[in-house]
Structures are given as structure tokens and as C-alpha cells.
Amino acid sequence: MRSEGWPRGRVVTGFAALALLLLPFADLTLAGHDPWDALARMGSGFLRPDFTAIEEIGRAIALTIAFAVAGVAAGAGTGLLMAPFYERRPVRGICVAVRSVHELFWALLLMQVLGLSPMTGVLAIALPYAGIFAKVFSDYLGDVDPRPARALGPGTGAASRFLYATAPLALPQMWTYTLYRFECGMRSSAVLGFIGLPTLGFQLDSFFRLGEYGAASAILLCYIGLIATIRIWMRWKIAALWLLACLTLLLSLSSPPMGSGALMRFLTEDIVPAPIRDGGALWPWLSEIIWSEALPGILATLVVAQIALVLAGLVAALGAPAIVTRVAGRFGRYLGHILLVTLRSVPDYMLAYLFLQVFGPSMLPAILALGLHNGAIIAHLVGRQGEDISAELRPDAPRGLTLWGWDLAPRLFAPYLALCLYRWEIIARDSAVMGLLGVATLGFWIDSAVAEFRLDAAIVLLLASLAMTAGIDIISRRLRRHLGGTTPAISRRLEAGDCAI
Known about the structure:
It is built from 22 helices and no strands. By secondary structure, the protein is an all-alpha fold.
């Protein structure tokens, strides 16, 4: 129940006011070049896609799919094994920890042990996804009808009850969610290319560095086409064939060996704090990292996240009515749907990379990318609810902005606010990752520590990132519980970190 002491309007005003107060602390400066000239050159190339490098693009597409299929399959299989035991505190703690670390951060750590190998990409996706799948699958298993399991004989073991009476009832929902998660895996796989794995992100980075914007445009079009047609080419009946083909392709890749003992050296030396290895004092070393790297990184991350959250809310408020037929008309809804699909299909990291080419290395590319991507997701959900409500209205009901302003917007304000709060934690986590592009968020300090082979410091900074996102998640959950506004289905998928809704 919503308390009268927490009006929703005041929450929105408070978040907007905080973003305005943080604006002077945000680095929104432009690079020395003319952004409009850079934008014109990019736009000219994007209007003329160049598919002549079809061999490189085709290989990057195949490997993007391969990493996504293998990573999601490994994550789903592991999550299914952990799902029956998810309510046990140690299992739940492990799942929360692994899914709180972004795929790019996992990849940076795994590269120290496995190098730029296929296993690095697969595990970078599988580890966080295993924690997500375990939570969602546990919820699905807990919701099934218990009567079939009770109908089995008293001598039936727990494993048999699970395999023959419980799991089959949840299997359709599990497959549907796995398909949603595969769409997220495609985004993660593409982004892994920015750290050297041979996926679409790697090719996009290469073409941009060469100034071949037509080829970069071709890559983006192919990627959006892949995401838009997933439900056509990825079917349950041929999922095993897809997995076999993808594993065969990944096994054919060669990678430089890391040498024997890399894992043991990583566990027993690299991540052990330097003072413990050298017999020194731990606190001076730890306090130096906290004050000179962790706190500045956290503050910069929070500045980016807060401003991006308000921008996402503004984008959602403007975009949601654009996909409601009675508000925008059929043609307007079609255009709005294309725009929102494009913005939510392209990963925010990839959008930030594109904006980086135009505006230079500041907080501005990260804020724009996070705001547009997450705003499109929220607008899609709110607009879809608005379409459902408007379909039940009388034929002679008002249309256009009158309908939106006086009828739909008041009804949708509560779920709109709740969805913004859901995305807050995700925006904060992704704001930290933007540091890998040069923005001074936590990811910048983590990347610097890894590059300098200070993996012990990198672990401390990762723990700081986890603490920050956990704190935001706690505040967000309490606000959502107080304000209400989302349906159980949307709540479950958003709490699981779903990016494909």
C-alpha cells in the first residue's frame, strides 16, 4: 500500500532536482573538434552502408551468435542446477555476487587467466547469467502446481519428483525466458568485441578507427536485423543444432597460450593484496585505493547514473505515447516503434562508443547512451500497457494528446515511475562499465588497475562497485515497495535484470 507521506510526484521532483544539482559536477565538455562535422561524416557513411567487407562482417556475425548461444546455454544449464537450491543462503549469495558483475568486468578478469580465448567470452556471459537464470527458474519452479508431484507414490525420490512432475510444468516458461535472455546475450556478445574478442563490436571498432563509416553502418544494420528476427531463426526444435554448430565454430578458433600455472598464479598471487604478499600493513594500501580511486570512481558513477536516469525518464515520457495507436495514429505508432526498437536493441555501451566519436571522451556520451537506451525500454513497456488500456475504451473515446493527458498518463504514472526505479540499479551498474571507454567512472579505475597488473586493486574496486549497486538496489526496492505500480510479471523479469523486455 502506498503511504500518503510519499507522493509519487515528490519522488519524481526529488530525482530531477538531484540531477540538476549534479549537473555542475558532470564533465559535459566537447572535444577540440567540431561535433557537427564529425556527425555529418558519420551520417553520410551511415546513409550509404558498405557491405563489401561481407566476409569480415559475416564471420563477426557468426562468432557473435556463437558466443551468445554457448554463453547463454552454459548459464541456463548452471542456473537450472542451482534453481532448486536457490533459497539456501550460500547458493543465493553466490548467485547475487556473480550476476552483479558486468560481463565486461568478468571478461577483463578472465583474460588474465585464459587470455583472448573462446572460453573467456563464453564464461564472461555464462557466469552472470547463471545467477540470473537461477533466480528466475527458482521462481518458475515455485509457481507450478504441486499436485502432480504429490500424486506420485510415497517412495518416489525428490529427484524423480522434480524431473517428472515439477520441471516439465515450468519448461515452457523457462524456454520463453531463455529466449529473452538470449537476446541479452547477443548484446553482451557484441560488446565483448570492444575488448578484443572477434565479435561485431571488434569489427565496429576497427571500421571506426579506419574512418570507414559505411562499413560500420552495415555492421549496425546487420546487428539490428539479427536482434529483430531472433524469434524467427532461433526455435526450440533446432536449439540443439544451433548449440552444436556454435561450439564447433568456437573450438575452431585459436588463441595464444597463457602458460601453465596461470590459474594458480591468479588465485594465489595476483589477487592477493600486495601488503599480504610482501609482509606489509594492509590498511595504508587499502585506504589509498579507497580514497584515490574507489571514492572518486563511485562519485563519478553516481553523477552519470543520476543524470542518465532523469534523461531516461524524459525519453520514456515522450516515447511511450508514440507507440499508442489512439494517440499517435497507425503511421505514427509504426515510426515510434521503429525508433524505440532501434534504441533498445543497440547496447548502451555501443551507443556510448558511437557518441564518443562525435563528442569526445567525457561523461556526455555515457549519459546520452544510458538515457536513450533505458528510456526506450521503459517507453516500450509503458506504451504497451497504454495500448492495452486504449484497446478497451469505447470507439467514441477521445484520441491524440487529449486521451494521453487526461486518461492514459494518470493511469500509467505509477508503473512508469516503478519502471524507472527498476532501471536505476542497472543504469548505475552500466555507468561504471562506461569507464572502459575513458569516462572517469569506476570502470576507468578498474581497467587501469588491470592494465597495470594490479589485480588485487582491481578486486577491491570491483567490490566497491558491487557495494554501490547493492546500495542503490536496496533504496530502489524500498521505494518501489512503498509506491507500487508494476504487475508481477514485469516485476519478476526486471528484478532478474532482464534487458529484453
